[in-house]
Amino acid sequence: MYLFYVDESGNTGKHADPAEPVHWLSAVALHVSSMRALEADMMALALDTFGERAKEPGFEFHGSDLFSGRRECRGMDADVRVAVYRALAGLLAKHRCALFIRGIEKARHQARAARRGYTPVHPHTLAFQFLVEQMDEWLQQRQPRRRTPSPAHEVLGLVIADEQKEVGREVVSSFAKWRDGGTAMGYRQRRIQYLIDTVHHVPSTDSWLLQLTDCVAYLRNRYEKVQRGKVLRGEALGPADEEVVRLWTTHCAPLLCCDKVWP
Is 261 left (phi over 0), alpha (psi -120 to 50) or beta? Predict the structure, then answer.
């Protein structure tokens, strides 16, 4: 069985904030056999960096805090914070994780809906649908080739997501419908067959893997801003921007199974 950890970046609201043009959903997938070793590596890194604080309730690795030096990372030198981010990102390949990214460009999504005369689906729900379609298709490609298929040999997946107060209930309800009757829209319309049970929402403070997924989601968001804001205009990159590009292209891009923005 594979576990799919899902988190967001780029704020969830329907408003088209020019500072956050894309709502991102990222998923980190790994086989259950790798779970304990990855958790142990994250705990070891946390203890080495933050000491006993890493064992206290409420502690978590958070992508934006590592880059900005806020909360847990207040007072830490930038070089140390970058080194921690590199170590976290390096765990993805070490434990054979797969990455799935879907983005919804909010202003274009709203403009498209207005132009075609329909009510736009919440960006989070739409990105989640596209993500689920891709993850289920990925699982389908990993089914054993047997003359007589058996449920006992199916390769299945379970979705664990960070708490989502704005549309969390809607996501759970939609997921059940997609499993029963298929997704209702989109170019990959499909009945979800290999993702089981429901969407399990848990606080990120309770899950090392959700914290790692948060770091991936934050990095994807920052990477897009660097590409749109400076690379396309031919502007020079500062040290922080260069590190974002290095982290993404070195540790995340090679593990991507999908990385698309809609529309």
Answer: beta
pLDDT band, residue 187 (cuts 50/70/90): low
| Tokens (6 digits) for 56 | 């206290």
For the chain, give the number of residues: 263
Cα separation, 21 vs 125, in Å, equals 16
Measured between alpha carbons, how far is 87 from 50 in angstroms, rounded to an integer? Answer: 14
Amino acid at 111: A
Question: How far is residue 190's CA from residue 195's CA, in Å, rounded to a whole number?
Answer: 12
Q: How far is CA 239 from CA 84, 108, 121, 217, in A?
A: 16, 31, 38, 20
Residue 123 phi/psi, 5-degree rounding, is -55, -35
Q: Residue 187: which CATH number? A: 3.30.420
How would you class 222 by CB atoms within 10 Å of its CB: exposed for 0-12, middle for 13-18, buried for 19 or more? buried
Q: How many folded domains does the chain comprise? A: 1
Q: What whole-number distance in Å separates Cα of residue 109 and Cα of residue 262?
A: 8
Mapping DSSP to helix (H, G, I), strand (E, B) and coil, where does residue 138 land?
helix
pLDDT tens digits, 25-35: 999 999 999 99
Where in the sequence is the domain holding 124, given as residue range(s)? 2-262
pLDDT in tens, 137-152: 999 999 998 777 778 7
Upper half-sphere CA count for residue 157 (Cβ side, 13 Å): 31
> Which two three-digit tokens encode residue 64?
């934006």
Q: What is d(CA 39, CA 53) in angstroms, rounded to the nearest whole number?
A: 17
